[in-house]
Write a structure and sequence with these properties.
Family: Belongs to the 3-hydroxyacyl-CoA dehydrogenase family.
CATH architecture of the largest domain: 3-Layer(aba) Sandwich
Radius of gyration: 26 Å
Strand content: 5-15%
Shape: elongated
Protein name: 3-hydroxyacyl-CoA dehydrogenase
Bound molecules: nicotinamide-adenine-dinucleotide
Structural class: alpha/beta
GO molecular function, one term: NAD+ binding
Largest sheet: 8 strands, mixed
Pfam families: 3HCDH, 3HCDH_N, 3HCDH_RFF
Helix content: 40-55%
GO biological process, one term: fatty acid metabolic process
Length: 505
Amino acid sequence: MTAIDRGIDRAGLVAVVGTGTMGQGIAQVALAAGHPVRLYDAAPGRASQAVDAIADRLGRLVAKERLPAADRDAALGRLAPVADLADLAEADLVVEAILEELGAKQQLFTALESVVSDGCLLATNTSSLSVTAVAGVLRRPGRLVGLHFFNPAPLMPLVEVVRGAATDEAAADRAHATVATWGKTPVRCADTPGFIVNRIARPFYAEAFRAYEERAADPATLDAVLRESGGFRMGPFALTDLIGQDVNEAVTRSVWEALFHDPKFTPSLAQRQLVASGRLGRKTGHGWFDHSEGAGRPAPHTAEPCEPPGKVVVHGDLGPAQGLVGLMEEAGIAVTREPVGAHLALPDGTRLSLADGTTAAEDPFAASVRFDLALDYRTATRVALAASPAAPEESLRSAIGLFQALGKAVSVVQDVPGMVVARTVAMLVDFAEDAAARGVASPEDIDTAMLTGVNYPRGPLAWGRALGAHWVRDTLRNLHHACPTGRYAPSQALIRRAAADEGLL
Ligand SMILES: NC(=O)c1ccc[n+]([C@@H]2O[C@H](COP(=O)([O-])OP(=O)(O)OC[C@H]3O[C@@H](n4cnc5c(N)ncnc54)[C@H](O)[C@@H]3O)[C@@H](O)[C@H]2O)c1
């Protein structure tokens, strides 16, 4: 490790400016790492309140025996509010967590520049502003970095270390090393809209909202499919009710606007209407779901038991769904194989194929049913199916019976292109490939960020490799054909990756 790679010394003074939700959390993290910490807030009395709030939180940790009382006392002995910015003159690192307004942040850092020493590192916790723009007014913009913590900062491991256009490499290295010594998982990223997580996560929300707008299914069903088949910890409807529809929409809009209205980042009309109607989620008692007292959570659509087929013919390679073959054999279904195709044939003539961005109705066979992508068909507890509108009722019933025989609950959704999980994951993979190719962050940091920042079950780049870049590309091409606005056009990065996989590059 070179001198440049070393973080702020443990004895170094950390100042936190803006002592609301994030400021308090960041202060707690710095305290836990052993630093003396000073708090400043523009609202009189707010910094002292923050000291009390942090003391309460540490007290709860002591009560739960997760922190020795002596460590709590020592930490509180290192923490003090200050009444004036000038009292931060000794700081080695200032982390700003004031309101999300460019002018306010620029003004604060301009004032700080004439208070702190030349060696002091400056950091902004902005989630949506340009670090380059915040630093743009400074005499020495090279020492300003973005340190994007996630809420709640003491619990969330990820910190995006953002290098603005003028940020010195050494300053970014120091910030990175510092948060690493704080026990966090730092990732480096360029100063681009949404950084890593808030950029790449957009389709997780957007595709579900879009599927809802297309009336593929209700929010409870779409959430259940993304959780139980996609492997995501929470569905996008429940998650945005928790985050706040206004907060989630503001992130979507700011990234979309900062990217000059790129159609891939288009916000959702259904979410706009929720926000306009004041249905902001749990905090207002109603969002996608009713959160008022006594209101039950709507159940996802789950098909009634159906008779399973006794045998299945596997035509060709099922690609990402090939794992189903072994599961069928284990379930006692007689499986025979035919070399050509990429589908399952049931005894009644039903053809079952993996969602690929086309609809079942586009197939030349009436009895056509699509099944959705699963993270892992063995562990998935639910699978979504969609039948061609022309399919006989019996086709859908035998397809339902097949998946039920594998132990899965089945949700029947409308026959929309890419259904639910397939379109969501294809878009996440494409966004991640595109971000990596544009130098937003390294491939390793992109997957780390999505695993630790939003708890995805798999890093999107690793997921794309498991699926095969050509499958992702072809699914998006089909979606693009169905909806030629540019939203689904595969990125150049994905096209190159698929060509390389196919040995064409
Ligand atoms: N809340 C989140 O989930 C989250 C996550 C990551 C990043 N952020 C970012 O962190 C920052 C703070 O967010 P928050 O949710 O903690 O806000 P908050 O409203 O809880 O706290 C902001 C605090 O800053 C103080 N303040 C405002 N202007 C000030 C000034 N000029 N000087 C000193 N203090 C000032 C306010 O009095 C308030 O106490 C924002 O930039 C936000 O985008 C928030």
